[in-house]
Design the sequence.
């Protein structure tokens, strides 16, 4: 006799998948507050949002790529390179160093897309290779060391560390990025085409969608937002380094998947990524509050990512799991 309660079918329900991340976020906040009273104070919440801002921007970029059914493994290298470029150019160029560093991210994002589309290289290989090139360039430009942003350069970065009406500027930047990305995905032709490509490339081709262009734009956005995250990190830490963002790749991808965006593409969005980024940040800060060893972070993130993929993956689109 078949069990009337099918747990797998319940998890496959789109509504359930969408409800799990917000519910998990609420549960985590309650657990951390019980384990360490005082977590829900204004100062701690401001720190939480400030730390989440960079992760959210980075994760928003890779959301575009995951929605089309791809993956971008170069984002941490692009963010680190942007930090190095900013630290090097600030003394001579001032505020103009920001668009130059961000433009570098755009260029390498386009490069990843072109390699993937024109050479027909799987996205994880294309971006892994591009990330290697970018990481090598960052090491070469910085001579393998961190570059401190001196007092003269800090005058051009002080606005990032400021607050407006009590709200950190980095949080306002993240909100701006999130709103623009949300509106773009929801109301633009590119957004609709991205979801169509992720849902099924053959159908997208049949519908007349320029799949190659959509993919390149997605990678370009990922590279650009990775660079924005990198310059914000450099400004906040007053230094640029070839390894500055090396620990952010796993949390960024985990934020996207934990938020409910399907790793196979075609389902998800920036709103879900925002929830996922908050979950990851609360897990990170919560572990510190309750005394978990900081070196266990990646163990936790890896376990969370496996669980999230297992829940959100659309197995109907994959005949054989390899």
Sequence:
């Amino acid at each position: 006799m078949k069990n009337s309660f099918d747990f797998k079918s319940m998890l496959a329900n789109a509504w359930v998948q969408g409800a799990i991340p917000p519910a998990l976020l609420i549960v985590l906040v309650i657990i951390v507050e019980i384990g360490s009273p005082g977590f829900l104070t204004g100062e701690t919440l401001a720190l939480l949002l400030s730390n989440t801002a960079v992760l959210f921007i980075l994760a928003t970029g890779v959301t575009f790529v995951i929605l089309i059914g791809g993956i971008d493994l170069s984002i941490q290298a692009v963010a680190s390179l942007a930090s190095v470029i900013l630290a090097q150019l600030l003394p001579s160029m001032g505020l103009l160093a920001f668009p130059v560093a961000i433009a570098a991210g755009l260029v390498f994002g386009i490069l990843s897309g072109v390699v993937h589309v024109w050479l027909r290289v799987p996205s994880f290989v294309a971006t892994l290779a591009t990330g290697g090139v970018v990481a090598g360039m960052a090491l070469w430009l910085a001579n393998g060391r961190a570059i401190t942003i001196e007092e003269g350069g800090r005058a051009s970065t002080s606005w990032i560390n400021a607050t407006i009406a009590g709200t950190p500027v980095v949080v306002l930047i993240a909100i701006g990025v999130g709103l623009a990305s949300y509106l773009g995905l929801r109301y633009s032709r590119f957004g609709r085409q991205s979801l169509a490509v992720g849902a099924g490339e053959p159908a997208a081709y049949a519908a007349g969608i320029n799949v190659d262009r959509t993919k390149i734009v997605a990678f370009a956005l990922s590279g650009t937002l990775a660079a924005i995250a990198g310059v914000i990190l450099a400004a906040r830490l007053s230094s640029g380094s070839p390894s500055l963002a090396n620990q952010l790749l796993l949390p960024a991808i985990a934020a996207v998947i934990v938020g409910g965006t399907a790793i196979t593409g075609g389902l998800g969005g920036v709103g879900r990524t925002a929830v996922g980024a908050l979950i990851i940040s609360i897990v990170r800060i919560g572990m510190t509050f309750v005394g978990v060893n900081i070196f266990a972070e990646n163990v936790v993130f890896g376990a969370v990512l496996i669980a999230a993929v297992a829940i959100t993956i659309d197995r109907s689109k994959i005949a054989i799991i390899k």
